[in-house]
Amino acid sequence: MTIIRLIFKFLLALLMLTAGVGHFLNPDFFLKIMPPYLPFHRELVYLSGLFEIALGISLLIPKVSSLAAWGIIALLIAVFPANIYLYQHQEIVPASPLVHLIRLILQAVLIFWAYCYTKKKAP
């Protein structure tokens, strides 16, 4: 694995870990962006945080790294409705519409970033 690829893998893992910890340190932010049609808001916030932490750590373990990358993709797709809800209700987090749009686009970038680590590389 090239050093650049390894650095970006570490950065993705760190991003996932940081986001996951954020779910526990500041659950109210995540609760605000939960679409009302989903049940068990607090539980889902904590569960998604737990998965972000576990997947971030797992991404750095070679034997399960590829599976962790697929898990990150699945998780990012699963939380996408919250990001759409936030875009539709921008008053929840006051920012320019462009910032909210970039947040949605960033989700696709993160999915692609995780996809880059789904293939097992030869040793």
Provide an overview of this structure.
The chain has 123 residues and is mainly alpha-helical. The chain has one domain. Helix 1 runs antiparallel to helix 3. The longest helix is centred in the first third of the chain and has 23 residues. It is globular.
Write the topology of this structure.
Blueprint: H1 3-25, H2 27-32, H3 41-59, H4 65-78, H5 80-88, H6 97-115
Helix pairs in contact: 1-3, 3-4, 4-6, 5-6
Task: Classify the secondary structure makeup into a structural class.
Answer: mainly alpha
As a whole number of angstroms, the C-alpha radius of gyration is 15 Å
Please provide the count of β strands: 0
**Given the structure, what is the number of helices?**
6
Largest sheet: none
Please describe the structure with a list of short key phrases separated by commas or semicolons.
123 residues
